[in-house]
């Protein structure tokens, strides 16, 4: 006769479940925290001093990075020389990278080698108001004391210098986006497009014949008179407002044609602003089967078959459509400028 439970690990004692041990506790006791292992800097003052110098060098590297940014920003002027433009971009990028990286690496190295690393468990206390203020201040003081920031002026001073200088490149870049007094919806209402202005490929400037476009094709185009704008900065500013996405569909695929827009397309060729009406990112992804345009920044989706209306995403209004036709030579030209401001909708809030 086979004894009941023979072969069953639960009844043979091979498995001990929680609460069934000899002491009535758990099968495996909480091992607790492992013993603290002191670091080299904890026992050797020379090692601690060496780590302090290393943190100083990293914070100093951040300051040097900010200086490199300033050199590129203030000493190199924008010009048509691509070599100087690339040099400036390199200095700006490298400077900002080192400014941020130096602070990050310095703080991490400081925490790993000099700040206390012992583990502790503290129960969360119930929240009180004024009664806990003094204790909170004491905790902050203890944190500052443990960080060693009071005892290590070399690290403290370079950290303060790096943190003061590091945000300045961002301030300068934001300030330099546009220094004009009339920046607003009126500047975005008008572009280089006008009656008879040819659509040309970017960057070659080649004009586009309607007969050369196949159904399903899409391309990035700019106005032909863009090359007549003097000054590299002004040219970029005008290009940002006038850039257009051109595509060709079957004429029967248009689902919506509003009154007054009957002649805004030519034989299935349609054009719209590439500047997303959400925050101004470039709309560039065209799906020929659904006729949808996607903005890669926040996934706003526009329907070219329905006058570029928003079908998904945070954009607040359709992409402005550019009225187009062909000239006597068969080249695509604009009928007029955009009939509404291009770009983000928030520029129109002042008019509401």
TrEMBL record:
InterPro entries: QcrA_N, Rieske_2Fe-2S, Rieske_2Fe-2S_sf, Rieske_Fe-S_prot. Residues 26-46 are annotated as: Disordered. CDD domains: Rieske. The chain crosses the membrane at residues 55-76, 91-111. It is found in: Cell membrane. It is a multi-pass membrane protein. The keyword Cell membrane applies. Its main location: membrane. Pfam families: QcrA_N, Rieske. Residues 241-333 form the Rieske domain. Keywords: 2Fe-2S, Cell membrane, Disulfide bond, Electron transport, Iron, Iron-sulfur, Membrane, Metal-binding, Oxidoreductase, Respiratory chain, Transmembrane, Transmembrane helix, Transport. Iron-sulfur subunit of the cytochrome bc1 complex, an essential component of the respiratory electron transport chain required for ATP synthesis. The bc1 complex catalyzes the oxidation of menaquinol and the reduction of cytochrome c in the respiratory chain. The bc1 complex operates through a Q-cycle mechanism that couples electron transfer to generation of the proton gradient that drives ATP synthesis. Belongs to the Rieske iron-sulfur protein family. This is Cytochrome bc1 complex Rieske iron-sulfur subunit.
